[in-house]
Amino acid sequence: VSTGNGCGHTLLTPHSGTLSSKNYPGTYPNHTVCRWRLRAPPGTSLLLAFGDVDLEPSEHCAHSSLLLSDPQAGTAYGPYCRNSVPSTPLLVTNSSSVTVLFNSTSHLSGRGLLLSYATSQHPGMGRAFPWDVGRDPLTPLTMPFSVYCPAGCKDIHGDIWGNPSQGYRDTSVLCKAAVHAGVITDELGGQVSLSREKGITLYESAFANGLHSKRGSLSEKRLVFHKGIFPISPESCDDVLEVAAFNASSWWHEVDVLGQYRAWVAERAALGTAGHSWAAEPGTEASWLELDLGTRRNVTGIITQGSSEQHDYYVTSYRVSSSRDGKNWRPYRGSGGQEDKVFEGNADSHGEVSNAFIPPIIARYVR
After folding, report:
1. Which residues, 6+ apart, have CB-to-CB distance to 183 below 8 Å?
2. For residue 132, is it within any domain?
3. Number of domains in the chain
4. Coil, strand, or helix at residue 153?
């Protein structure tokens, strides 16, 4: 739970989370306060990682401060500001409940604060926030290692370069890259296995799981994510699933200005089809496209594309539902499970956008 007018990006779950001050990493505002109450499951304790604490210095941190309190043990940590920073980047508490208090008076500078937390069930979390984790000289090249990424790291400040098939420049924000690669879901975070390998000449950008990576040049090393012991690549999945049949709620019977007829039927929805794609009848509500996979399959993600630059149409967002028998349909709600998940679609008519299903869908029919 967070309260106050000084709260920035915040995602708190029972097992991990990320929080920041308002405007982070821009200068935090004057005369604000935010209180976050962190609660872990009974029997566990909280670990807090200080990603960034940059509050304008003052005597006894009187002008701007970060203060943590442990109500169960009656102890407090801080106050912290630029001239009184935490002595270690990781704070291990003995409590399942911690209150984080941030406040500011008048000031001129300071990025504010960025914190993450996890429970004692995830001791590897301490390596999730340092941006240079991939350049740790103690980690031999290609030696796999594991990190616990907290929930909410998708929207933290920092860039990523690369994509799941290439790997990522080791200067990328690690947990953000893991969300982009579809290894974890941002709503829950999770354990990530990866290795450092030899860098490549060029890292192509891609839009995936609500994040846009950047195009970047050579780096000496790159980060390659793993599922189990296998690297994430097109070969690690069961390849592209064959679609036995396409169906749709409706389709567009187009007649252009020259009187030429064009049918935007469901079968034209196959990725890579030249020319125009599928489109619903204009003006219809709750349109859907249905894919029949022929038999029950394990579906780990979806790639969407617009109708080509010649026919400039695309879908900006969509929901997914699935069925094993074609009669009973289940909306996809992702790892959170509270509301139907809205996937971020395309921003132009030619680029491909990937979205991962975490957990995967087991179904014959997908809408």
Report:
1. 190, 192, 225, 227, 232
2. no
3. 3
4. helix
Burial of 132 (0-12, 13-18, 19+ CB in 10 A): exposed
Clarify whether residues 253 and 232 are in a common domain: no
What letter would DSSP give residue 280? Answer: P
CA–CA–CA angle 203, 205, 206 (5° rounding): 130
Run means of pLDDT, 10 residues per run, the chain, 367 residues: 94 94 96 96 92 93 94 88 91 92 95 94 54 42 80 94 94 95 93 92 95 94 76 53 95 89 94 92 92 96 90 93 96 85 94 93 97
Q: Which residue has the tokens 């967070």?
A: 2
Cα–Cα distance for residue pair 147/170, rounded to 1 Å: 14
Among 236, 259, 294, identify where a domain stops. Answer: 236
Rounded Cα–Cα distance for residues 81 and 87 (Å)? 12
What is the extent of the structural domain holding 27? 1-123
What does pTM read for this prediction? 0.86
Residues in the chain: 367
